[in-house]
């Protein structure tokens, strides 16, 4: 970036209104989640402050991952900003596919970003993506149905308790299902959930020599437990349900419990969207007593692909969208419960935000996930709900299809695990592990 452009960027960050000499139109690829949709609705604030216009390409999660991966690998240049996560950022940063964000203005206060988020989006101390929201996963549950079942949810439950509660809450005649969990195939859909869950059951993707472990008793226990539970207490058609589908079911009052991203808390407690907004409680993701909970760590973050012609304008957008001021803007427009969670220390120190019913459980969940020690047995990889190697996305997408097919009753647990073991071994061998 030329010196005068950087100087202008610094000045823009400080000035309330700053229209640059050359207004740009930047193209941003993002996911169709509620917080991102909300950001699009507030973009006029950015345009007023900077003069830059924004064109949005909004995609379903699996499609977004595919499109941005293809574009960056081929140096396609379709996007000036990409919405990516903790899996892609370190891998692409190492490849020099992303622009460093180490020169954000002082007012941005990079040290305020939660350490778990900053660490997961950096390589060797260089920040390559700024978290728009951060999340772990937790249990969201219907307090009225829990009471009706004669049970009380602990803050830190076991999977045994959750399964028992789910079966007792289920009333299929009235379309109430005790538990809603991801079944839609995808490395960031059902495999994010099942990988995190398997950690709690003592399973792992690979042993220390990178040998796949789907033929282990721990994986059989994980997948059998999940499929039995979903067949008995889950909604019909669960093998096609991802984050958005389960969110909709929960908001319609059809789920007793939902274990998913902490970011969903604001949507299930929003009376404008949720029929059960005043009947939702929160608890940590379950464990099995082995010392690991099935909760992940993720950030949807904004990154700039190397080679964009609009780097300065893209950095101005990231500065706007992931700043403390943006949180204040959302709070002013829609209330503190609806600000993007999980990114900044100062948010959790804010007395107004501390009143939000899910704030503490979200932070506790984020802090309890450890990507450097995700499993009961030792592993050679980093990542809670993914394995931070380039091959993972392709392999886990295929494994996810096998597990989704098992959930749909198209094959047995043993068949799905045998296929997962074979295809993972073949792909890893081809990759030279």
> Could you name the CATH homologous superfamily of the largest domain?
Periplasmic binding protein-like II
Strand tally is 11
CATH architecture of the largest domain: 3-Layer(aba) Sandwich
Count of distinct structural domains: 2
Please bin the fraction of helical residues.
Answer: 40-55%
Uncertain residue ranges: 1-17
Shape: globular
Q: Which structural class do the helices and strands define?
A: alpha/beta
Strand order in space, largest sheet: 2-1-3-11-6
| CATH C-level class of the largest domain | Alpha Beta
Largest sheet entry: 5 strands, mixed
SSE string, helices as H and strands as E: HEHHEHEHHEEEEHHEHHHEHEEHHHHHHH
Strand content: 5-15%
Number of helical stretches of at least 4 residues:
19
CATH topology of the largest domain, by name, is D-Maltodextrin-Binding Protein, domain 2
The radius of gyration computed from the alpha-carbon positions, rounded to a whole number of angstroms, is 22 Å
Q: How many angstroms separate the termini?
A: 39 Å
Describe what you observe in this structure.
With 433 residues, this protein is α/β, with parallel strands linked by helices. The chain has two domains: 2-128 and 297-354, D-Maltodextrin-Binding Protein, domain 2, CATH 3.40.190.10; 137-296 and 371-431, Periplasmic binding protein-like II (D-Maltodextrin-Binding Protein, domain 2), CATH 3.40.190. The protein has helices spanning 3-14, 34-41, 43-50, 61-73, 88-94, 115-120, 143-148, 159-169, 190-200, 217-233, 243-251, 265-268, 311-321, 324-334, 345-349, 351-354, 359-368, 392-407, 413-430; strands at 25-31, 53-59, 81-84, 122-123, 126-127, 130-135, 137-142, 177-180, 255-261, 280-284, 298-303. Strands 2-1-3-11-6 form a five-stranded mixed beta sheet. Strand 4 (122-123) and strand 5 (126-127) form a beta hairpin. Helix 1 (3-14) runs parallel beside helix 13. The chain starts with a helix and ends with a helix. Mean pLDDT is 94; it is low at 1-17.
């Amino acid at each position: 970036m030329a010196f005068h452009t950087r100087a202008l960027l610094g000045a823009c960050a400080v000035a309330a209104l700053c229209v640059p000499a050359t207004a740009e139109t930047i193209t941003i690829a993002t996911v169709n989640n509620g917080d991102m949709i909300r950001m699009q609705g507030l973009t006029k604030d950015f345009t007023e402050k900077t003069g830059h216009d924004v064109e949005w390409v909004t995609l379903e999660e699996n499609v977004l991952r595919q499109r941005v991966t293809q574009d960056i690998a081929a140096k396609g240049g379709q996007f000036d900003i990409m919405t990516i996560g903790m899996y892609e950022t370190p891998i692409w940063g190492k490849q020099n596919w992303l622009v460093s964000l180490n020169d954000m203005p002082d007012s941005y206060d990079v040290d305020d970003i939660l350490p778990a988020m900053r660490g997961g989006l950096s390589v060797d101390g260089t920040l390559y993506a700024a978290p728009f929201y951060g999340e772990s996963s937790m249990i969201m549950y219907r307090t009225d149905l829990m009471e009706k079942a004669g049970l009380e949810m602990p803050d830190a439950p076991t999977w045994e308790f959750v399964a028992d509660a789910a079966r007792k809450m289920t009333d299929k005649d009235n379309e109430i299902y005790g538990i809603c969990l991801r079944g839609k195939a995808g490395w960031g859909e059902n495999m994010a959930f099942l990988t995190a869950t398997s950690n709690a059951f003592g399973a792992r993707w690979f042993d220390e020599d990178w040998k796949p472990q789907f033929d282990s008793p721990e994986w059989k226990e994980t997948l059998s437990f999940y499929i039995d539970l979903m067949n008995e207490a889950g909604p019909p058609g669960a093998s096609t349900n991802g984050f958005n589908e389960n969110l909709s079911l929960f908001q319609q009052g059809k789920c007793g419990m939902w274990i998913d991203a902490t970011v969903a808390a604001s949507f299930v407690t929003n009376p404008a969207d949720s029929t059960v907004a005043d009947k939702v409680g929160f608890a940590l993701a379950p464990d099995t007593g082995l010392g690991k909970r099935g909760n992940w760590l993720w950030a949807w973050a904004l990154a700039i692909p190397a080679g964009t012609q609009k780097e300065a304008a893209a950095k101005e957008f990231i500065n706007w969208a992931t700043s403390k001021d943006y949180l204040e803007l959302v709070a002013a427009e829609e209330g503190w419960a609806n600000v993007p969670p999980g990114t900044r220390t100062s948010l959790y120190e804010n007395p107004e935000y501390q009143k939000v019913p899910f704030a503490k459980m979200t932070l506790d969940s984020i802090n309890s996930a450890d990507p450097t020690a995700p499993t009961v047995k030792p592993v050679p990889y980093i990542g809670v709900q993914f394995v931070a190697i380039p091959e993972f996305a392709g392999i886990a997408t295929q494994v996810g299809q096998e597990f989704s097919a098992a959930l749909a009753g198209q094959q047995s647990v043993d068949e799905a695990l045998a296929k997962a073991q074979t295809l993972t071994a073949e792909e890893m061998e081809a990759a030279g592990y």
